[in-house]
Every structure is written in structure tokens, then in C-alpha cells.
TrEMBL record:
This protein's record includes keyword Kinase: yes
Protein name per its UniProtKB record: Putative NBD/HSP70 family sugar kinase
Keywords: Kinase, Transferase
UniProt keyword DNA-binding, yes or no: no
Length: 390
């Protein structure tokens, strides 16, 4: 949207965006708190809130009980009926969720696949699920769009999936296919990059400005970067492909794939194999690994942890983050012995680069990719509530 900087309309729209963004990120806030945070006067905040209520984007609730003198301030909260559909296609399943503007996962379905799903099949599945939900659990919802977290290289300029190697997609026009099938605007990003955004805004990286995020999924390992508080995508949007780096393996007995990349060695498939599972969602695999007393399972976790520590040390040396966040099966590998992982990273990284480094698992768990994908769909609404409400 073009606007004349400094005009009343431009300032008004930015103030609406500021208020909506605050309650989206922070959750329900009193009008008094919004006045304090924005620097706007009370009457302006009240008018902006009323406009957002009228647009169906927020709701005002009765104030929390208080013992303070004076009239308590009403609470402004995101309207729970404003929804984004979030999709994560993978080699073993397509997961589809409805995510509220308030961050709640309203409904989630995992559709197991016995073959590699095609872009066209993905688009039709999304359309069918959304149509069914609209007559049931989302019958009163306002769906603003569809966000897709894809395990591959997604061109930032137009959302073309240049390469999703494990899905065997090349130059897939996924956005156009989804929009045609579901009749909703669609937005596409790399799954790990979206996981990094979700953890930065709402999870383990909240309030942290320099983060390296690694995501372990069925398609391997991807990564996302937050530098000075902003996502880094690179010139084409392909930054963060840690899984394609050649791992340093100190003990040759640890190598399983001759000439393989990181995701060939630190592998969800190998973890499934040692616990005797063919396929599983994240909680099921984590429970199977943590509940096993098999020496083979312990040895494989330790092997993957050693190789992962070298990859993380390299990332720390290059990027000097204050925080590393691990999601998916990488969180399970880390949690098998967090002290050993931290010590191995510190031993291999330059001491100055690793000073103050913290390693955490993703706080959003299996919700992280859905929340990240939903942020794509909410982006235009948050930037200009009036335009999207029109």
C-alpha cells in the first residue's frame, strides 16, 4: 500500500498496526498499558481499540480485578476468531493447523503419506481440509490466509519452491496451486526459517537478538538466523541450510555416510531405526527414545550429539550468537545429555565467540512451524489492519 508519509491516514494506519501488533505479540493488554507502551494518549488508544473491535480484529474484555483507586482499564485482546491456516508438507505426512491471532492452535491434523506428496496433491488436501473445517470447527472464523512451511529452498521474491530435495519438488509453483484450490491468499517460506521466527517472537528466543536456530525434521536439518533482532534470509531467501554443510567428524568410527552432509549423519531416520519405528510424529519419537534402555539407542544419541556439537561450534565461530535453539528431533538429541552437548560445543568453539552462549530446545515444541507459518499469513493484516479488514 502506498501512503503519503506524515498524512493523517498514514499515521492512523500505523497506530492501528502498532496496537494490533502489540496484543498479537504480548497477549491481552489493558488500555492503560497500551497507552504507556505506545506513548499515545488515552482517548486515542480508546478510539483505536474501538475501531479494531469494529473491524473484528480484537475484543475488549472486562478489566482484571484490582485494588487500585480509580476505574480499572478495559483489556484489549486479539479476537480468537481471526485465523491463519498453517501447513507443513513433509516426506511422511502433511500437517495442517488452524492458528488464531491470539497464538492458540485451534485444530491440527496430521495426514500420513505412503508416498511423496506432490505440490498439486498438497494444494488439494489443504482445500479439502479447509472446506471441511469451515463447516465445522471454523464455521464462525475469519480465515485471513494460508502459510506454508516447506522443507526446501523457497525464493523470497515470489514464493516459488526452487528445490525441496526430499520431497523431490523442483521449481514448484505451490503458492499458485494452493490459492487456486483453496481460494485464499497463500504465503510460503522455508520451514526452519519460520521456526526461527516463531521461537524468536514467542518461544525460547523471545527477547534475544542474535540466534542460530536448527530444525530437525523428516526431511533433514534446516536452519534459521536472527541477527540484530531481524530474520536473515540471504539474497535469494536461502540462508540457513546448515543440514547441507559437510560435518567435521573427529572419530572416523562415528561416520555412517561416506562423504555425507550433516543431515545424513545427524538423522531422524537413524533415530527411528534404533527404536524400531517406521514413522512417528515428534512427541512419539521423543518418548520412544527417552523411554528406551537400549545401549544401541544411547550410543546413537551420543554419536549424533558429538557430530551436532561440531556443527554448532562452527556456527558459533561464524555468527557469534548469544543463543542456539534446537527444534524437532534435534531437541531430543540435545535433551539426551544437555551438559555434554554444551561442553562439546564450548570445547570446539573459539572461547571469545562462545562467551555467554546458551543452548536451548524450542519452547514451542511441535507448534513452532505452525506458528511460524501463520505469521506469514498474518503479516499483511498486522501491517495494515484497515486494508485487510476492508
Amino acid at each position: 500500500m502506498a501512503e503519503r508519509v506524515g498524512t493523517f491516514d498514514g499515521v492512523h494506519r500505523r497506530n492501528l498496526s502498532k496496537l494490533l501488533g502489540l496484543v498479537h505479540l504480548e497477549g491481552p493488554l489493558s488500555r492503560a498499558r497500551l497507552t504507556q507502551v505506545t506513548g499515545l494518549n488515552r482517548s486515542t488508544v480508546a478510539a483505536l481499540s474501538a475501531e479494531l473491535v469494529e473491524a473484528g480484529l480484537v475484543e475488549e474484555r472486562a478489566p482484571d480485578p484490582t485494588n487500585r483507586v480509580g476505574r480499572p482499564s478495559p483489556v484489549v485482546a486479539p479476537h480468537p476468531g481471526v485465523i491463519a491456516v498453517a501447513v507443513n508438507p513433509e516426506v511422511d505426512a502433511v500437517t495442517i493447523a488452524a492458528v488464531g491471532l491470539d497464538g492458540a492452535i485451534v485444530v491440527r491434523e496430521r495426514h500420513e503419506m505412503d508416498h511423496l506428496v506432490t505440490p498439486a496433491e498438497t494444494a488439494q488436501l489443504i482445500a479439502d481440509v479447509v472446506e471441511r473445517w469451515r463447516s465445522d470447527v471454523l464455521r464462525r472464523a475469519r480465515i485471513v490466509g494460508i502459510g506454508l512451511a516447506v522443507p526446501g529452498l523457497v525464493r523470497a521474491s515470489d514464493g516459488l519452491v526452487r528445490l525441496a530435495p526430499h520431497l523431490e519438488w523442483t521449481d514448484a509453483p505451490l503458492r499458485a496451486l494452493v490459492e487456486e484450490a483453496a481460494r485464499l491468499p497463500a504465503f510460503i517460506g522455508n520451514d526452519a526459517s519460520l521456526g526461527a521466527v516463531a521461537e524468536h517472537l514467542f518461544g525460547a528466543g523471545r527477547g534475544v537478538d542474535d540466534i542460530v536456530y536448527l530444525n530437525g525434521g523428516a526431511s533433514g536439518i534446516g536452519g534459521g538466523l536472527i541477527v540484530h533482532g531481524a530474520p536473515v534470509g540471504g539474497s535469494g531467501g536461502y540462508a540457513g541450510e546448515f543440514g547441507q554443510n559437510r560435518p567435521g567428524i573427529a572419530a572416523q568410527g562415528d561416520r555412517r555416510a561416506a562423504g555425507g552432509v550433516l543431515e545424513d549423519e545427524v538423522s531422524r531416520e537413524r533415530l527411528l531405526g534404533v527404536v524400531g519405528l517406521h514413522a512417528a510424529d515428534e512427541p512419539t519419537l521423543a518418548a520412544a527414545l527417552s523411554g528406551s534402555e537400549s545401549p544401541e539407542v544411547a550410543d546413537e544419541l551420543a554419536r549424533q550429539r558429538r557430530i551436532l556439537s561440531t556443527a554448532l561450534a562452527n556456527a558459533v565461530n561464524v555468527l557469534n550468537p548469544s543463543l542456539v535453539v534446537l527444534g524437532g528431533f534435534l531437541a531430543t538429541v540435545a535433551e539426551s545429555d544437555p551438559a555434554a552437548l554444551a561442553a562439546a560445543v564450548a570445547e570446539q568453539a573459539m572461547p571469545a565467540a562462545a562467551e555467554g552462549l546458551d543452548i536451548r530446545v524450542a519452547a514451542l515444541g511441535e507448534d513452532r512451524l505452525a506458528i511460524g507459518a501463520a505469521e506469514l499469513a498474518f503479516e499483511r493484516l498486522l501491517a495494515d489492519p484497515l486494508q485487510e479488514a476492508a
